[in-house]
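Allow me, if you will, to draw on your knowledge of protein folds for a short while. Thank you for your consideration; the sequence and its tokens are set out here:
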Amino acid sequence: MKMNRENYREYDAINFSKLGQLDRNPSKVDEEKDWHDGMAFGSLVDMMCFEPTRVEEEFYVNDADRSPSKTAKKLADWILENKNVGIDDHGIHCIENNTRFGLSSMLTDASDAIGSSTDFDRYGGIEYLESQIKSQDKKVVSEELYSNARQATRTLKTHEFTRRYFNNPDKNIVIQNQEPVLWDPSYYDDDLNWMAKSLLDIVIFDHEENTVTPVDLKTTSSSVFMFERKMTKWRYYLQAAYYYDGLNWRIKNHDEVDDYEMLPFEFVVISSKNLHNPLVYETTENDLDVGRNGGTLSYNDREVRGWIQLIKDLKWHERNNKWDYPREVYESEGKVELDIFN
């Protein structure tokens, strides 16, 4: 099977998300992340920038004036889980044993089941229930969040600092978006006998200068000037090295561009709190080396693992089927050395 954007997630190869989660908590390697507004904003901006035709397929904009109360939401969620609920010109209903039941009947059942009731219409229950029914399998976002994502997208494509990453009139510049890369980590370490995959937001080929620039788009709820701290919290140094090395492997194994120079990995960052002032961060060779081989953080002397070690750790966990602790805790038989002073 040839890997493309559509089947990337199903393709059986190691990815950055799994390695990053392993580094944080081995027991949650395959656990899906809870969906929240920050993830929704980032996903929307990504899609609006790179795959705008998919936005309506993936997202439903809830234009309700208010969020439901806790009780109204519980009642609505119970109805959605337990009733064959639908909506038409006559309102919200369900069909059971070829009999049509209205909303009031369903609310009675829901109130009995959860042990509480409320003025469902007054406290936003109807608007919430309607939005959930209409959305089907789509991700529901507020009108405000959707509007903010559109503004962020416009900013990124027009701002003097970032527009060149999305549209460059130079005929020698080719920009590829959402580029899947299947690559061989053994190029960097002979012990790594497993395939890896990366999905790069932006790859810029300069066919005049013979260079390649890998770029990732990031959204944040903090100031863009706080991104250095986000680099360590979310293991973006690991992602940068992993994506850079995967692309470098492909470049070196591609006859047409195997002599091109790989330029530093870059992050284009925009904040949901400031939709008009993005910033670009460029990694250093040291950033990429630490992301690859591990190293020590400059501001607190904490040691971090690179992607090479993490792949080895992942395979150790899979072979031994032990996930409650990091590999080194198992190998030390549960004893951790205290070393708290410089």
